[in-house]
Sequence to fold (222 residues):
Amino acid sequence: MPPEKLKPSPRATKKEIVTAFRTREILAAARTVLETRGPEAITMEEIATAAGVAKGTLYLYFQSKDDLVQALLTQVGENILRDAQSSLKAPGTPADKLIRLVSVLLGYLNRERLLFPIYAREVIRGEGQSQAGFWQRYQDLEDRFVALVTSLFDEGIEAGQFIPANPRLLTFLIRGLIRATGYYQKTEGQADAAQEALPVILTLLSSGLIRKQQSPTEEAAL
Fold:
């Protein structure tokens, strides 16, 4: 189910409103079953039962378990983008905003650790596919996220708070750190990996990427 169908438009018909509501109910039920059974063990029948719909009705909304799980991934991606935008709109310096953003991303990594292995699999599968279906929606969310964080680095470099570097490169490096934490969490079975990584990543940022603020005396000497 494409993400644009998850929320009714301002002029939505009754059918569209019912569809959006039922889709949200199904995704919520799928998440509950996922947390109980794990991503590989869940079945469409279990999800239908949890959602209170017939199995045939479930297939009207999602053609397969893969489609349903991909819709969950899209929903999470939209939530991450929304919260990332909120964290960057809040008051503070570019350095403050970057620290908040990293905390938001690691928080999602912790909460969505069951979905991360599927996300990693879909990324690998999607790199060899044409821009269609889930991969197209995923790529759109990724592009919007990269543009958002790149503009933060632009702002911080202009303000002299970040080291002078390609802001897009810095964005990919931050994203890489978050993904690496997810892979560590997955391969090592470390449920608290995000919590463990937070102070390490913040130290890396403060000692390498965020420039030390100079005193007026130091600035005058330059």
Notes: The two ends are 58 Å apart (CA to CA). Residues 214 and 220 are 10 Å apart (CA to CA). The longest helix spans residues 133-158.
